[in-house]
Amino acid sequence: MAYLETKGLEVSFDGFKAVDGLDFSVNQGELRCLIGANGAGKSTTLDIISGKTRQSAGSILLDGVDITDKHEHHRARAGIGRKFQVPSIFSELTVRENLQLAYSKQTSIRHNIFSWPGSAGRERIEEVVELTGLRDRLDTQASFLSHGETQWLEISMLIIQDSKIILMDEPTAGMTIGETQKTAAIFNSLKGHHTLVVVEHDMTFVREIAEIITVLHQGKLLAEGTVGEIEINPRVQEAYLGSGGISHA
Amino acid sequence: MMNSKSLRTLIGYTIFSAAVLLLPLLIDDAYTLNKFSRYLILGLATLGLSLAWGYTGILNLGHAAFFGLGAYCMAMYLKLQTVPVHTGTGGLPDFMVWNNVEQLPWFWEPFHWSYLAITAGIGIPVLLAVMLGWFVFRARIAGVFVAIITLAMLVIINLLLIDQQRYTGGFNGITDLAWLTIGGIEFDPYSKTFYYLSAGSLVVCLLGTGIFTHTKAGLILQAIRNDPDRVRFLGYDVSAYQILAFALSAGIAGLAGMLYAMVLEFASPTFVGVSLSLSMVIWCAVGGRGSLLAATLGAILVNAAQGSLSENFLETWQLILGGFFVLIVLFLPKGLISIGELIRWRRKRTDRVQVQVLSSTKRARGIS
Ligand SMILES: Nc1ncnc2c1ncn2[C@@H]1O[C@H](COP(=O)(O)OP(=O)(O)OP(=O)(O)O)[C@@H](O)[C@H]1O
Ligand SMILES: [Mg+2]
């Protein structure tokens, strides 16, 4: 059964349809890659699902529940976590504080005025910084991190947030080959426990993690299938013409 | 759990609290004591502002509205405690008689009781903040628009107070107040008792807010200042936290306002004035809005400096203060407190350079 489902999703910016009648669904525990040329509407799709952008038509179901009219924080509580294309972290706070904020099982004021930031989720944070190599940076202010480290920080935040479904927008952008491989390993370990939607341009990375790929083109669903199927799909090849072919898109 | 930053904060709070509480040992002069009480009270109001502005990023230009409402609540109570010249014990306040009011208006009635008045002095600002915050923050109004709306609120309340002369004393405000007496203790504004009331209120609020900002909720407020949108995607209801910070800030301002009416023995529309409100923002910025203690100190120091000047120098002083504010915003955006930070950073950097030089000379000599 579909865990996340969008029906006829549509959004337009000044008459330009960035997402145009999108029907898209992901099963529980699946890792889905979302690809497409620049401007295909990938980020906008994640924006609508996470509540950042309001759709002009269509609906979104999460685990069978309609969340179309919910605010971002309600969607987050319902289990949607989001990593942004431009890494979005709290630059004025330390790495540790960023991670403590991400540990957000308790969101109510009544709970949080009576608890210390470090009192819950400490083991979880320890585990994750071990995994992502940020241990030495825990007390560093996030604005002093390198680009790669900032990516890791946001990925760490998502892992700690422990959302049922995680939307990742270009998580490996700006990473070295080694770092990208490490990310692939982490994502593969998240599979099954979490449902993931990963937007990515790097086809090597996509091949390492993807089960099924969804291709967007001009705000519409163009194709869906395994890596092998997508790579030989003539419509996909056509859509990528002019942008140098699928693996360089 | 105690890192060096928290430790430094703790030391700062302790030294400040001790200094403030021990000051009367050095000062015997009633007039000076009264002056210092006044500075501490303004420090308290600014502490409240720094909670909203410095911590949560709510630029409230109407902070004096909360302060003034507190002051008027206390003034109404203390006015009813006096014996009016014309009407005798229990009679109408004199300014109402002059304005041909015949009966005490209904909303003055609760101010016969000290506990109700004190509750109102904090409760009314808090309630106003919650109501305004509800509209502003739920609609996701931010930044300069919040500044404009809060400023408008201030101006409206100021005009109302002036306009409703029959009930508020208009331009003159409510004057000739009694001294507060609670549980047999009389708070003569020129006494040590009153100084301790002001200093105690400040220390309690400073420690209370200090602890509050170290809770998870306090961390969430800082995250909201940094990037409110990102906070929402973690599941926190940003507007609720903003309303909380705004209300706490207003409550502290209300308390400070009540003390201010007591120390000056009157309340007037200048307490709800644009000039005072903007001054509070300046004190906060001068000390360092990101730190509760720094903002408080900023208010105390600027006022102490101002208080030591002669009357005819005051105009020039406003100019100097304005220039000072511009300089700080340009060169020390985190306020005077960041001078320490700057020095520490410089020193660290020199240390590191020395270590590097040392290790490279060693390497050059093949020691290492
Ligand atoms: N807020 C906005 N206002 C106007 N146009 C927008 C806005 N956001 C996105 N667009 C447009 O919508 C289209 C889809 O953008 P989107 O960011 O979703 O693409 P994408 O598939 O994520 O591309 P990329 O691979 O470059 O990240 C683009 O043409 C973009 O210019
Ligand atoms: Mg994008």
Characterize the structure shown.
The complex is a heterodimer of chains A (249) and B (368). Chain A is 35% helix and 25% strand. A 6-stranded mixed β-sheet of chain A has the order 6-7-8-3-9-10, sandwiched between helices. Chain A has a 4-stranded antiparallel β-sheet with strand order 2-1-4-5, with helices on one face. Chain A is globular and about 55 Å long. With 249 residues, chain A is an alpha/beta fold. Chain A has 2 domains: 164 residues, P-loop containing nucleotide triphosphate hydrolases (Rossmann fold, 3-Layer(aba) Sandwich), CATH 3.40.50.300; 75 residues, no CATH class. With 368 residues, chain B is mostly helical. Chain B contains 15 helices and 2 strands. The longest helix of chain B is centred in the C-terminal third of the chain and has 28 residues. Chain B is globular, with a radius of gyration of 23 Å. Chains A and B meet through helix 2, helix 3 and helix 4 of A and helix 9, helix 10 and helix 11 of B. The structure holds adenosine-5'-triphosphate and magnesium ion. Adenosine-5'-triphosphate binds next to helix 1 of chain A.
Provide a short characterization of the protein structure.
The complex is a heterodimer of chains A (249) and B (368). Chain A is of the alpha/beta class and 249 residues long.
How are the elements arranged and paired?
The complex is a heterodimer of chains A (249) and B (368).
Chain A: E1 2-13, E2 16-27, E3 31-35, H1 42-50, E4 57-62, E5 65-66, H2 72-78, E6 80-83, H3 95-102, H4 109-112, H5 122-132, H6 147-161, E7 165-169, H7 177-190, E8 195-199, H8 203-209, E9 212-217, E10 220-225, H9 227-232, H10 234-240
Chain B: H1 4-22, H2 30-55, H3 63-80, H4 94-98, H5 114-138, H6 144-163, H7 165-168, E1 180-182, E2 185-187, H8 192-213, H9 216-226, H10 228-232, H11 238-264, H12 274-287, H13 292-307, H14 314-331, H15 338-365
Antiparallel strand pairs in B: 1-2
